[in-house]
Design brief:
With about 130 residues, the protein is mainly alpha-helical. It has 2 domains: about 10-75, Arc Repressor Mutant, subunit A (Orthogonal Bundle); about 80-125, no CATH class. Helix content is about 60%, strand content about 10%. It has helices at about 10-25, 30-40, 45-60, 80-95, 100-105, 115-125; strands spanning about 30, 65, 70-75. A 3-stranded antiparallel β-sheet has the order 1-3-2. It starts with 11 loop residues before the first helix and ends with a helix. The mean pLDDT is about 90.
């Protein structure tokens, strides 16, 4: 089976759903998600709107679902950390040709990094 490409660019509304799912220890039903968005987030979205967001997240490879006894249960397809790592890789690839050197050059404004920043980056690289 071919690995499916994940799309990390998500809307603010899709992010609300992902943040909710990431905080849960178990999957959540459509009703749970709707209640969270409409009550906790103070949205007044119709079922069709929420269903569209969930469908998009599923198509992007970020949400998976499973049928339980009477309801479909939704889960994040990856942890928050895995998502952020993928998002960073995609950002680096799209805007800097996958080159960390090009990114750091842009980050530093084309000049030299100050000693504290350079030391911090060396420490991070050594940990990796």
């Amino acid at each position: 089976m071919a690995e499916r490409k994940v799309k990390y660019l998500i809307s603010e509304s899709e992010n609300m759903i992902m943040e909710y799912l990431w905080k849960q220890e178990e999957g959540r039903t459509f009703g749970d998600i709707t209640e969270y968005l409409n009550n906790t987030c103070q949205k007044e979205w119709k079922r069709q709107t929420i269903n569209t967001f969930i469908k998009r997240l599923t198509e992007k490879g970020l949400v998976v679902s499973q049928n339980s006894v009477k309801k479909r249960v939704y889960y994040p397809a990856m942890s928050y950390t895995e998502y952020k790592q993928g998002e960073a890789r995609e950002f680096l690839g799209e805007f800097y040709g996958g080159s960390m050197k090009t990114f750091l050059s842009a980050f530093s404004g084309g000049g030299k990094l100050d000693e504290d920043t350079a030391k911090e980056l060396r420490g991070i690289l050594e940990e990796m």
